[in-house]
Write a structure and sequence with these properties.
By secondary structure, this protein is of the alpha+beta class. The chain is built from five helices and 19 strands. A nine-stranded mixed β-sheet has the order 11-18-13-16-2-3-4-14-15. Strands 1-5-17-12-19-10-7-6 form an eight-stranded antiparallel β-sheet. A two-stranded antiparallel sheet has the order 8-9.
């Protein structure tokens, strides 16, 4: 398998969000959400923690093999034009009840993927207990509305492998809080400088002015006015955790599905089902089943 490549080499200055709704774009090289050029936030940015993105996580041949194995099983109709394959326990999230049911484990082809995750710095100790494959097609108008994943059963890290085509993960926030934006500028080599690294002179040059009186102050904007696009290349792996998991909703809009796309999402257990938790024993049972890698879709 190819080496994991953090998107440090990507120039965030050249990335633009598609569709006109997102007014910021996540820059993997700096961890910043940068205001899009045609938005009112051009030239502004803020730290966007809780995202890990790595490219070419698997090879083209591996991608083809995985998709072929998936397509041997039935895809069940899901919401908003999606189709799905589930490998996980039977859960009633509203009543907070679950049982193993017909769950027989994650599929055999995922064993290699899970082993490879150990090389990712943010995935130390990650033990997936559930896998969900979602099939998106533009002809079906496939999409998924802004949402939080459950956190009663599922733990902090959400891990998704993006197959067959690129897309955009759209992040939005319903919080009443405000976000502090910082002015940004580009260095002579074209790289975007992080907030706080600009000097008075460089900030003035960026605005076309120079002089002692030219100082850009941080700017507060309501969180609800901010949407962030995270560009997901084909065969990339993305991890959401921390604020990106618990504060920001994520979505995939129809306009960002240009070709067939398969998303493979792995979830871990919450603290309640882990060592020392109230349902530790049930958690152990589910993990033992999951990591047998002998499963079929439930």
């Amino acid at each position: 398998m190819s080496a994991r490549i953090l998107y440090r080499q990507l120039s965030c200055c050249s990335i633009k969000a598609a569709g006109g709704e997102e007014n910021f774009t996540y820059c993997p090289a700096t961890g910043l959400a940068k205001g899009n050029e045609r938005s009112e936030f051009a030239g502004w940015a803020f730290p966007f923690p809780g995202v890990f993105l790595t490219g070419e996580f698997i090879s083209e041949d591996e991608e083809s093999e995985i998709v072929e194995l998936m397509d041997r099983d039935d895809w069940k109709p899901s919401q908003s034009g999606r189709k799905k394959q589930d490998y996980g326990p039977k859960v009633n999230f509203k009543k907070q009840r679950l049982k193993a049911g017909s769950f027989t484990g994650l599929p055999s082809f995922s064993e290699k993927i899970v082993a490879q995750m150990k090389a990712c710095s943010v995935l130390g100790g990650f033990l997936p207990v559930e896998q969900c494959n979602l099939d998106y097609m533009p002809e079906r108008g496939s999409a998924i509305d802004p949402h939080f994943d459950d956190w009663w059963l599922w733990g902090e890290r959400l891990v998704s492998l993006n197959l067959l085509s690129k897309t955009i993960l759209s992040m939005s926030c319903d919080s009443e809080d405000s976000i502090q934006l910082f002015p940004t500028f580009r260095k002579e080599n074209g790289e975007l400088s992080p907030p706080g690294s600009f000097t008075q002179t460089s900030a003035c040059k960026n605005s076309g002015e120079e002089g002692i009186g030219c100082i850009l102050s941080p700017r507060l904007v309501p969180s609800k006015e901010v949407t962030v696009a995270i560009h997901l290349p084909r065969r990339s792996l993305v991890v959401l955790y921390g604020d990106a998991r618990y504060k920001w909703k994520h979505a995939i809009y129809r306009k960002h599905i240009e070709h067939r796309r398969i998303c493979v999402t792995f979830r871990e257990l919450s603290a309640e089902f882990s060592t020392g938790g109230r349902h530790e024993e049930l958690g152990k049972e589910l993990l033992e089943i999951a990591l047998s890698f002998q499963g079929r879709p439930v």
